[in-house]
Automatic annotation (TrEMBL):
<dbReference type="GO" id="GO:0003677">
    <property type="term" value="F:DNA binding"/>
</dbReference>
<dbReference type="InterPro" id="IPR046348">
    <property type="entry name" value="SIS_dom_sf"/>
</dbReference>
<dbReference type="InterPro" id="IPR035472">
    <property type="entry name" value="RpiR-like_SIS"/>
</dbReference>
<dbReference type="Pfam" id="PF01380">
    <property type="entry name" value="SIS"/>
</dbReference>
<keyword id="KW-0805">Transcription regulation</keyword>
<keyword id="KW-0804">Transcription</keyword>
<dbReference type="Pfam" id="PF01418">
    <property type="entry name" value="HTH_6"/>
</dbReference>
<keyword id="KW-0238">DNA-binding</keyword>
<dbReference type="GO" id="GO:0097367">
    <property type="term" value="F:carbohydrate derivative binding"/>
</dbReference>
<dbReference type="GO" id="GO:1901135">
    <property type="term" value="P:carbohydrate derivative metabolic process"/>
</dbReference>
<dbReference type="GO" id="GO:0003700">
    <property type="term" value="F:DNA-binding transcription factor activity"/>
</dbReference>
<dbReference type="InterPro" id="IPR047640">
    <property type="entry name" value="RpiR-like"/>
</dbReference>
<dbReference type="InterPro" id="IPR000281">
    <property type="entry name" value="HTH_RpiR"/>
</dbReference>
<dbReference type="InterPro" id="IPR036388">
    <property type="entry name" value="WH-like_DNA-bd_sf"/>
</dbReference>
<dbReference type="InterPro" id="IPR009057">
    <property type="entry name" value="Homeodomain-like_sf"/>
</dbReference>
<dbReference type="InterPro" id="IPR001347">
    <property type="entry name" value="SIS_dom"/>
</dbReference>
<feature type="domain" description="HTH rpiR-type">
    <location>
        <begin position="24"/>
        <end position="100"/>
    </location>
</feature>
Length: 328
């Protein structure tokens, strides 16, 4: 049986597609044709679906480099989905974006079903993560982990709702590893913390935007005191320029949020990887400490599945406050 997307003529167009597609159909043609494409063409298709606004503006060399394919593959891909070439594909893609719903999500368009929205959003995220992983330098992650592991103190700075949460998340993870770590979101405390840093310390600054004036000032102060500055931010931002180690968080622009889901997820993954790399450097000594920590939490923690633990904790607190004898 012939596949629905096997080449049917000398142009290499898959069977089942019209000789040409309109602006409103080009994204659907890419999505429906992925399964029948070669691996290299599939990477191109995923790139176009994951970041169509960038693809419209990029030239053939930039697309080929980012997808990890040759320039002729781009042309073959365009013809495979019913376009005359890359120029025709980009014109139709621009039209599709104009007809779509970019104010909600770059990969979601008017008229799509719930199932299509789920597939397109998750597919877009998968593409973004794969692209971010290819461009991330493991050597810089190693440098950051090594600096954190040997630091006397690690201060995590984040300004804004998302960055504040991420700074606290990193601090909590490092704290569990037995490291002296703090998290600050208040501009005043950030300056105080930065002023007390030394060359034995690390300052981790988290800001996807990378342009917050109060955060930049605190980073300048910390760097002047000799601290090693690690930045989780977009490349070529003022914050990136100040850092000794930059972990770039470059992802497509979000349609609705300044710091969108893509940026949120890659920063969380970077923090997770950093924590793991630091833990691995601590060797077998970490195993005993983590086992002890887990034992304490299982024994005394109140966020367990067994509700009696929580109830017992409240009974003890009430008995203490009211001066009553504790009951078993």
């Amino acid at each position: 049986m012939t596949s629905g997307f096997e080449p049917s003529d000398a142009t290499g167009r898959p069977a089942g597609l019209e000789d040409s597609v309109g602006a409103s159909d080009v994204l659907s043609a890419i999505r429906s044709g992925l399964d029948g494409m070669s691996e290299s063409q599939r990477r191109v298709g995923q790139l176009f679906l994951g970041d169509p606004e960038w693809a419209v503006k990029a030239n053939v060399e930039e697309i080929a480099t980012r997808a990890g394919v040759s320039a002729p593959t781009i042309v073959r891909f365009a013809r495979a989905i019913g376009c005359e070439g890359l120029k025709d594909l980009k014109l139709k893609l621009a039209g599709a974006l104009a007809l779509g719903a970019p104010f909600l999500h770059r990969s979601v368009h008017v008229g799509e079903t719930a199932a299509e929205v789920v597939r397109n959003v998750t597919g877009s995220m998968t593409t973004v993560l794969a692209d971010w992983q290819r461009r991330l330098d493991p050597g810089e992650l190693d440098r950051a982990a090594a600096a954190i592991n040997r630091a006397r103190r690690i201060d995590c700075l984040g300004t804004g709702a998302t960055s504040h949460f991420l700074a606290q998340d990193l601090q909590a993870r490092l704290f569990r590893l037995g490291l002296t770590a703090n998290a600050f979101s208040d501009a005043h405390f950030q300056l105080v913390a930065a002023a007390t840093l030394t060359s034995a310390d690390v300052l981790v600054s988290i800001s996807f935007v990378g342009r917050m004036p109060t955060l930049l000032r605190a980073v300048e102060v910390g760097r002047a005191r000799g601290a090693t500055v690690i930045a989780l931010t977009q490349a070529r931002t003022p914050l990136a320029e100040l850092a000794h180690v930059v972990l770039p968080m470059d992802v497509p622009r979000d349609a609705t949020m300044l710091v969108g889901t893509d940026a949120y997820v890659v920063q969380l993954i970077a923090i997770e990887v950093l924590m793991i790399l630091v833990g691995l450097r601590q060797g077998t000594s970490l195993i005993g400490r983590m086992n002890d920590l887990h034992h304490v939490l299982r024994t005394y923690g109140i966020d367990r599945e067994d509700p009696s633990v929580l109830h017992a904790g409240w009974r003890q607190m009430l008995a203490s406050d009211l001066g009553l004898p504790e009951t078993g």
